[in-house]
Amino acid sequence: MNQTIDSIYRSHSRGVLATLIRLLGDFDRAEEALHDAFAAAAQQWTEETIPTNPYAWLISAGRFRAIDHIRRRVRFDAAQADIADSLYPEGETMEIAERKEIEDDMLRLVFTCCHPLIPAEAQMAMSLREVCGLTTEEIAHAFLIPAPTVAQRIVRAKNRIRAAGIPYEVPDKMELPERLAQVLHVIYLVFNEGYSASSGATIVRADLAAEAIRLGRLLLQLLPDPEVSGLLAIMLLQDSRRLARADAAGELVLLSDQDRSLWDRGRIREGLALSAEAMTADGVGTYALQAAIAAEHARAATADDTDWRRIVALYDLLLLANPSPVIELNRAVAVSMCDGPAAALAIVDSLLGEERLARYHLAHAAKADFLRQLERNEEARQSYEMALSLCQQAPEQAFLRKRLAELEDKTRH
Predict the structure, then answer these.
(1) Measuring CA to CA, how many Å separate 393 from each of 1, 95, 132, 382, 400?
(2) Is 349 in a helix, a strand, or coil?
(3) Other CB atoms within 10 Å distance of the CB of residue 42
(4) pTM value?
(5) What is the pLDDT of residues 317-338, one digit of tens each?
(6) For 165-296, where are the E strands, in sequence order?
(7) Which of 58-62, 273-277, 344-348 has the lowest mean pLDDT?
(8) Are 282 and 225 in contact (CB under 8 A)?
């Protein structure tokens, strides 16, 4: 039963929270209600009594417990009774059905976290916490900053929402374009955490990846835009490889070694169509370019068929549009496939001189791979060990240990 509830928490908790925020009108109150609802589920549910609609049960339980907490405090503040009555007026029925309206609660949550009155760095932290359910420690690892800094940003963002009376809603269509960039960025962050979890025992968090794709589809209905099409294309093309990214033992499988018969052809067809649409628009943006890179991989029947020159050229355009050390690191991998590991190593060495990437495990892992290919085995070992010390995802850790063991075998022989 505990495993069942844990599974429901992973798949439903963010949606339950989003609806509770709308119903209760306060982030902290909704988070407390969410935890109360799952605690009640752990006490009351059995295999025979588990509700057919856990989502509705949890929202009702959380809402009722929030009202109870408020009413218990009534003797300290008479105004709390009015708040409780407004949350659940007498005679109101609790209807939790499939939402046909476009402005669903998860999208409301994303737009609220990304409101322009909230500082950009706080928007990111708030979104990863509330939309993805990441801990402050996981967010700190993702941004390479101390956990207390993340916690402070989240607290300040919630205070800003409360003090400024920021509405919990999707903006009207006149406001959407100016709010779009930050929302796309957050949805992409949600997807990336689902596609390659920053920590934990598995490579993929399928629930987060699926939620990001659903939000992308929803946003495309709200605002048909080449960049929305591009983002949705990236997510579909990358998610198409999900089943091939780990073997039966849960170990990481590199793109070049994946069984491409496991790739989801339906997702690839849809992603390629959206990518073509984004790339033929009047203005080609960064998501369209990233989708075009993903499309090159999707088109290749085998790893050897990949057009790496084309990918390097697309990365060159992407760097002009959005200079980023992570994009440059990805470009270095493509360069290694065209011009060899020495050319790529020079790029990565310059990147590791930057403070942000010095603590990024994938940069050290890439350097180690290039050194290994150049048979500079002792330097490669040191880089693999550095990558391993920084990595927090179990399958990636296992992969790095395997590479280290292979180097040691090679050295002995």
Answers:
(1) 26, 40, 17, 19, 11
(2) helix
(3) 13
(4) 0.76
(5) 999 999 999 999 999 999 999 9
(6) none
(7) 58-62
(8) no
